[in-house]
Every structure is written in structure tokens, then in C-alpha cells.
Specification:
about 525 residues, alpha/beta, 18 helices, about 35% helix
């Protein structure tokens, strides 16, 4: 399948070589996933040969938001076309988020404008150059208006993926809409769907199921998946390591039939995901919910460190099994999950009737709703991600509800604990904050299990507070974009378990403590953009 896609892509070579190009291409596709690799050849050519400004890719017979392969298509296009542009960038967006200065900095760096991080700088840069810009997973009209200028340099190509079909509240959209024309793409044909299902199930395409009395059941699985790549991958992943038993396969058919009506793609995914989740080991269920609610997009090695600290060395095997089941993406550096699966995982935490044991176990901030999700009073919180609440104040919680929290990712706010001083939980494993006050509270507490500490974008911090000596289990310390930080404490050398130290973008840091030589377990030291640092101890 990959070679077929590669061969078909070769026919697109003239697309970016026609000289100065004035057309831009807008691709909207309902969903994402690796399944698109198998059928991308039927989509890419007609899309890129279209003469209009915008090309919509949609499934004719399924509702939006069903996971049909938009991200894979965007990545295929970017990887193929970026070598032909002097300036190119790929920007993946998370669920309905505001585009941050860090993302702008990364995009401008890809385009060739290092050190810039403002929308004004982005707009000025792309207006005068022919650029390839791929923005993956636009959710809201605000994201369109925030990021995209209405003019790009001649010859630019703009590829945007979205689960939305219209953005009526967007001024950018209103101006461009007269130039847009839809292009409908059908679901996977049965032969391609069969190929994807068997690949996901670990079965050779030529394997004969007749001897197992499964041919008719396989046909029902293909029929009920309605050409939906994500459903086919989940169905195959669920059966991957199971014996070829008719009853097992019929269970998958029933799960795919849970949609309320013929085109209810969300219902089909709900059914197959529920069956997949229930088949997991309890450790895997916890890992899946961590990714769905608080850890999506975080470095994989950090997530594995925390899980290993809590669950033992087996977590690497458990995570690889989640990858094989297609419940998390097999991406090299960060933990990722399809946004549809993440939404369903969040529903499991929110729905008491669905799974009472996980209700309230994780807390996160929903930016679109403007409120904290998941928190239930008198339910112990295991993990919390409130990093989008920078200007929203605190969230009222019970101290007892945070006594068991192991992952706490905060912005420049403290949880409001019944108007009492906040106490850092003793079994905390991972703490991230942008507040020096929270850091001081953590250092004053006894945190024998803390293995990851991140202090980010604390621009007023000039020196790290003491002491560090009690953080005996700390393995990863990141002090990032603290632009006023000038020195580090001597007690840094007492972090006997420290393996990675990242001080990047601390532009005023001029010296390192001599005690850094005592970090005998240190494996990696990052000093990128520490411009004032001239010598090492």
C-alpha cells in the first residue's frame, strides 16, 4: 500500500514546479489516522489537480468528526511537497486551543525566521514569500482568524485540515468562501477496508478464514464499519492477539452496530472503543485515560518515567500493546491519540454511569467551555492538567481530593483549597508550573517520589529557591524560558538521581554552580539559547 501511494505521489511532481503559482489549496477532512495511507492515492491526485482555491475532502455518507484520515493526508502532502519550497512549516493543533507563542515560534523557525513568536511577525513573513503552510486540525473560526492572513506570497500553498465544514463566524472564511468548492470523497471501498482490517488484526490478506467459519463475520465487520478507517483499525487491533473464535468476532460486529442510525459514525466508534477499553489490563486503562485527559502531546519518555515509577517496569510492554491496538499513536517522541478517542476517553471520566471507578480521577481545563472538567468533590484526583488557566484564577478543590494526585500540570495559579494554604501532595511524581510560588511550596514539602519537575516561562524569576537536596528521586529537571534567571543554587549538586537537566532559553544565566560536577547520573545537559553563559565549571 505504501509503495502504491509513493508511486502515485510521483505523478504530483509538477504541482510545485509550475513556476509562480497563485492558487492555494484548502483541504478539509473529517478525522485522521494511519488508515489513510492505504487509500490516499485515490484522494491526493484529484485534490491537487483541482483548479479552485479550496478542495474539501469529506465522506459522503458519514457525519463529520469520524476519524477518516485528514492528518495522515496532510503529513503525506507536507513530506512530499516541502522539499520543493524554500519556506515550509507544519503546525498541528490540539483540541480547540488558542494558538500559543511557542507554536508560532516553532512555525516561524521552520519557515526560517528564528527568534520570532508574534502573529504580526508571522503575517509579515509569509506575505512576501512563497511558502508551504500545513495547519492540521483547525477547530474554530477564531483559530482561522488568529493565524491566517488574507494574503500570502505568490506561489504559496496553504493546506488546512478541519473536522468542520463551515466557519460562518470567521472573517477569513467569509472573504474566501466565494472561491471555495467542495470535493466529496467516498468511504473506503470494501477491498481496501478489508486490507486495512486484516493488517490491523495481524492477518495476511491471503489468509483463508473459511476453515474458521469466519468469512461471513468478517464481511459483517467490513459492512458495519462503513469504510471508516479508525473503526476498522480499532476492530482489527481488538482481535489482533485473540484466537480466531467466531464468538469473539461477533462481539466486534455488535460493537460496531451501536450507532443510533446508519450514518452514526460516532456511535460506531463509541461501541468499538468501549469493547477495546474493557479488554485492557487495569494498568493500560489508567494509561489510556492519562493520555486522553492530561498527557496528550507530552514527551513519551516523561510519561513512561511516571508510569514506571507508579506501575513498575512492565509499562513499556503495556504501552506497546496500546500502540498495536491502535488506541494510541505509535509516534516516536510524544504520546498521541486520535482526537476522537481522546474525546471518548474524557467521556469515560465524566460519565459516572459508564465507569464509576474512574469518575473524577482526572481533571483538565476545557478551553472551549471555559471551565474545569472532571472534578467531582470527594473523589480522589490522580492527575490534573490546568495549564490553560493562566488568566482564569484558581479552581476550588478539597485538600483531601488532591492528597493522591501524582501528575500536576499547572499554570501561574494555585488551586483554591477552601481558602487555606495549599499543601503539595507527598506522593507527587510530576509537577509542572509557571509560578515560583508553587515551586517554593513544592521545595518546602517532602516529595520523596517526585521524578519530574518543570518550571516554564517564569519571566520574573532571577534565582531558583532553595533547597533542592530533599528531591532525592528527581530524574528530570527543566527550567525553560525563564528569561531573568541568572544563577542556580549549589544544592543542585545534591540531586543524586538526576539524569536530564534542561536550562534552555534562560538568556540571563551566566554561571553554573560548581556542584553540577557531583551529578554523577546526569546523561543530558541542554543549554540552548543561554546566551550569557560563557564558561562551564
Amino acid at each position: 500500500a505504501y509503495m502504491q501511494v509513493k508511486e502515485d505521489l510521483s505523478s504530483l511532481s509538477t504541482w510545485a514546479k509550475e513556476g509562480p503559482l497563485e492558487r492555494q489549496v484548502f483541504i478539509s477532512h473529517t478525522g485522521q489516522d494511519e488508515g489513510a495511507r492505504i487509500f490516499a492515492a485515490s484522494i491526493l491526485k484529484p485534490a491537487l489537480e483541482a483548479a479552485s482555491l479550496a478542495v474539501f475532502m469529506d465522506f459522503e455518507n458519514l457525519e463529520p468528526g469520524c476519524g477518516c484520515g485528514k492528518t495522515t493526508l496532510a503529513i503525506l502532502l507536507y513530506n512530499k511537497l516541502s522539499p520543493r519550497f524554500q519556506h515550509s512549516a507544519y503546525l498541528p493543533l490540539d483540541h480547540k486551543q488558542v494558538i500559543s507563542s511557542e507554536q508560532l515560534r516553532k512555525v516561524l523557525k521552520q519557515l526560517g525566521a528564528n527568534g520570532q513568536d508574534s502573529l504580526q511577525a508571522f503575517g509579515d513573513y509569509v506575505r512576501g514569500r512563497a511558502v508551504l503552510l500545513v495547519v492540521d486540525n483547525i477547530w474554530t473560526a477564531g483559530q482561522l482568524d488568529q493565524l491566517l492572513p488574507k494574503e500570502f506570497g505568490q506561489g504559496s500553498r496553504i493546506i488546512i485540515t478541519s473536522r468542520q465544514k463551515f466557519f460562518t463566524d470567521s472573517s477569513w472564511w467569509s472573504e474566501m468562501e466565494p472561491k471555495l468548492s467542495p470535493y466529496l470523497v467516498p468511504g473506503l471501498p470494501d477491498a481496501t477496508a478489508l486490507q486495512l482490517f486484516r493488517c490491523s488484526a495481524g492477518l495476511d490478506l491471503g489468509f483463508n478464514l473459511a476453515s474458521k467459519d469466519l468469512c461471513d463475520v468478517e464481511s459483517k465487520i467490513i459492512n458495519n464499519a462503513k469504510g471508516l478507517p479508525l473503526a476498522l483499525k480499532l476492530a482489527g487491533g481488538l482481535l489482533r492477539k485473540k484466537p480466531l473464535l467466531r464468538q469473539e468476532w461477533l462481539g466486534v460486529v455488535q460493537a460496531l452496530r451501536r450507532g443510533w442510525y446508519a450514518n452514526d459514525s460516532q456511535g460506531r466508534l463509541n461501541g468499538i472503543l468501549s469493547l477495546s477499553f474493557d479488554a485492557l489490563h487495569h494498568v493500560q486503562q489508567s494509561m489510556f485515560l492519562d493520555v486522553a485527559t492530561v498527557l496528550r502531546g507530552e514527551p513519551k519518555q516523561l510519561a513512561l518515567r511516571v508510569w514506571k515509577k507508579q506501575q513498575g517496569a512492565c509499562v513499556q510492554v503495556w504501552y506497546e500493546d496500546l500502540e498495536q491496538r491502535n488506541l494510541v499513536d505509535p509516534e516516536a517522541t510524544h504520546v498521541q491519540m486520535h482526537d476522537v478517542l481522546a474525546a471518548l476517553g474524557q467521556d469515560m471520566v465524566l460519565d459516572k454511569a459508564r465507569n464509576n471507578s474512574y469518575q473524577g480521577s482526572r481533571v483538565w481545563y476545557d478551553q472551549e467551555m471555559g471551565k474545569v472538567e472532571g472534578y467531582v468533590e470527594r473523589c480522589p484526583v490522580e492527575a490534573a492538567c490546568l495549564t490553560d488557566m493562566c488568566d482564569r484564577g484558581g479552581v476550588s478543590m478539597q485538600q483531601s481530593d488532591l492528597s493522591d494526585v501524582r501528575i500536576l500540570l499547572l499554570a501561574n495559579m494555585l488551586p483554591a483549597i477552601n481558602n487555606q494554604p495549599w499543601q503539595c501532595p507527598g506522593n507527587l511524581l510530576w509537577l509542572r508550573t509557571t509560578s515560583s510560588a508553587i515551586l517554593q511550596t513544592a521545595l518546602n514539602a517532602h516529595l520523596p517520589e517526585l521524578c519530574i519537575l518543570q518550571l516554564e516561562e517564569c519571566s520574573q524569576l532571577t534565582a531558583l529557591p532553595e533547597p533542592f537536596s530533599q528531591l532525592t528521586a528527581l530524574q528530570f529537571l527543566q527550567v525553560h524560558h525563564c528569561s531573568s534567571l541568572a544563577s542556580l543554587p549549589q544544592s543542585l549538586g545534591q540531586l543524586t538521581a538526576l539524569e536530564k537537566l534542561d536550562l534552555s532559553w534562560c538568556k540571563q544565566l551566566s554561571t553554573l554552580p560548581d556542584s553540577i560536577g557531583q551529578l554523577t547520573t546526569l546523561q543530558e545537559l541542554r543549554l540552548s539559547k543561554c546566551n550569557q553563559l560563557s564558561t562551564l565549571p
